[in-house]
Design goal:
The protein is an alpha/beta fold and 285 residues long. The protein has a single domain, classed as Metal-dependent hydrolases (TIM Barrel, Alpha-Beta Barrel), CATH 3.20.20.140. It is built from eleven helices and nine strands. The strands form two sheets. Strands 1-2-3-4-7-8-9 form a seven-stranded parallel beta sheet. Strands 5-6 form a two-stranded antiparallel ribbon. Strand 1, helix 1 and strand 2 form a beta-alpha-beta unit. Helix 6 runs parallel beside helix 8 and helix 8 runs parallel beside helix 10. The protein starts with 7 loop residues before the first strand and ends in a 15-residue tail after the last helix. The model has no long low-confidence stretch (mean pLDDT 94).
């Protein structure tokens, strides 16, 4: 089957400027763009609001967006997402979810949000190590390295945090599994470190046992990386373990909706992955 004949989907996408401060464009326009591009289904997975002002992203702090404002925005997002799901149900299947965080106190906060808003699913993501938002910028990444005591300890802390998050939240989808490599030009060496390799194998075993899905996150290409998250050695382990992998464009505006989707599908197909994409819900509609 040609890559162009395989259904286009995104298991982790749809961030919009309407509800995410570091994205752009309206959520409805982004949904319409997915429809225009012929997507069969898409998971809309906005970031959660912080539990307090100390846990805001740096750009939210700079623009004086407080926790009350961000919480109100998230409520509006869930309402709007569900409205769009109904409005366009004859043209596209939308799953309205959210993306987790892993800072101090996240467990009770995320569980409370899930109980209040009843998302279709959660994307379990790690953007913080030791409460530092390491993927915000290269300089913040260096702060995380310094606080952890080195690059290998940072990787170890990341994968340990991920393991804990998977156990505690049991999300249906694991987002950008190896994003800790974002600002590390020597990530191949560090991912293959024996202590890190053991943690990767441990986490993948848990993901397999829980029948979770891995997000094949294509945004890495947009940021200039040579390969998506997952990196090739991890991807090959995942295939051998039979863990389902599904493309995610992680779009943050109209210009990144569906970006590199055919390229990602082609890569997964060439490696022998099942392209009958598993959906992020326990029973398909």
């Amino acid at each position: 089957m040609k890559p162009t004949d395989i259904p286009k989907v995104s298991i982790h996408g749809g961030h919009s400027g309407e509800f995410c401060h570091h994205a752009k464009d309206s959520l409805e326009d982004i949904v319409l763009k997915y429809i225009q591009k012929g997507f069969e289904w898409v998971g809309i997975t906005e970031h959660i609001p912080p539990p307090n002002n100390d846990r805001r992203y740096e750009d939210e702090i700079a623009d004086h967006l407080d926790v009350s404002f961000l919480t109100q925005k998230f409520m509006q997002y869930m309402q709007k997402g569900k409205q769009l799901k109904r409005k366009y149900q004859d043209k596209i299947t939308l799953y309205i979810g959210f993306e987790t965080e892993t800072y101090t106190g996240y467990a009770a906060h995320v569980k409370s949000l899930a109980q209040s808003y009843q998302p279709d699913y959660m994307v379990g993501s790690v953007h913080h190590v030791d409460d530092i938002n390491f993927d915000f910028s290269p300089s913040v990444y260096e702060q995380a390295v310094e606080k952890a005591g080195g690059i290998i300890p940072l990787y170890a802390r990341y994968f340990d945090s991920q393991f804990d998050m998977i156990q505690i939240l049991q999300p249906k989808v694991i987002g950008h599994f190896d994003v800790i490599r974002l600002y590390d030009p020597k990530y191949g060496k560090h991912l293959s470190d024996p202590d890190i390799g053991k943690r990767i194998d441990r986490n993948l075993s848990l993901i397999a046992s829980q029948k979770m899905i891995l997000d094949f996150n294509l945004r890495a290409w947009l940021k200039g990386a040579d390969e998506p998250y997952l990196s090739r050695p991890i991807l090959e382990k995942v295939r051998s373990m039979g863990i389902p992998v599904v493309p995610g464009d992680d779009s943050h505006g109209l210009d990144s909706v569906g970006l590199n989707i055919e390229r990602g599908i082609s890569l997964l197909q060439s490696l022998g992955f099942n392209t009958r994409w598993q959906r992020p819900v326990f029973s398909n509609p």
